[in-house]
Design goal:
The protein is an alpha+beta fold and 180 residues long. The protein has one domain (4-176): 3-Layer(aba) Sandwich (Aminopeptidase), CATH 3.40.630.30. The chain contains seven helices and eight strands, in the order E-E-H-H-H-H-H-E-E-E-H-E-H-E-E. An eight-stranded mixed beta sheet has the order 1-2-3-4-5-6-8-7, covered by helices on one side. The longest helix has 14 residues, at 115-128. The model has no long low-confidence stretch (mean pLDDT 90).
């Protein structure tokens, strides 16, 4: 998978060894695999469970499909230190319908700086350029204003709602591939 760069971020592919280290709480290994400092409070168990809709066994069985497009957001300081500030993940490789679902998260100390919008825009553009992808969707809770701002800035359009088994009603947004 290609590396993506934005004005302030390096968006590096998430690997199976990194996922295993994070899910197993092996912070030193996660930092080694990421080649970056990982914030102490990120990711937490709740974020991991939301971000990775598949079990670790499902991810191990088919990492190329399950980790399709998933990237760490890495900020490089003026001193050259690399620090993970969040991630953009897709819910696996798009199926036959050509629809990819994206999610994003920024660690608390880096929120409010536009990282989610910057990184997610680059990842959504990448996804829409992939063969067979016709649309990218994003879902969020109706009261989650920060997430709604990111989605709006990306130009996504509200297309409906869906029920989540534990979170309740989610609003669904979509951005479709625009043919040249």
């Amino acid at each position: 998978m290609t590396y993506l760069r934005t004005a302030r971020l390096e968006l590096e592919p998430i690997s199976l060894p990194l996922v295993e280290a994070i899910m197993e709480g092996r912070r030193e290994d996660a930092e080694r695999f990421a080649e970056a400092v990982v914030p102490k409070t990120w990711p937490n168990r709740a974020l991991i469970e939301r971000a990775f809709t598949a079990s670790i066994e499902e991810i191990r069985a088919n990492p190329a499909t399950r980790l399709w497009g998933d990237r760490l957001m890495i900020e490089r300081s003026q001193e050259g230190e690399r620090r993970v500030v969040g991630s953009v993940v897709f819910h696996g490789h798009p199926g036959a319908d050509g629809i990819a679902e994206v999610a994003y998260g920024v660690e608390e100390g880096s929120q409010g700086r536009g990282f989610a919008t910057e990184a997610t825009r680059a990842c959504v553009e990448w996804a829409l350029a992939q063969e067979g992808v016709i649309a990218v969707t994003a879902t969020t809770l109706p009261w989650h204003l920060a997430s709604l701002r990111v989605i709006t800035k990306l130009g996504m359009i509200h297309v409906g709602t869906r029920e989540h088994e534990t979170l309740g009603e989610l609003v669904v947004f979509e951005l479709r591939h625009r043919p040249l």
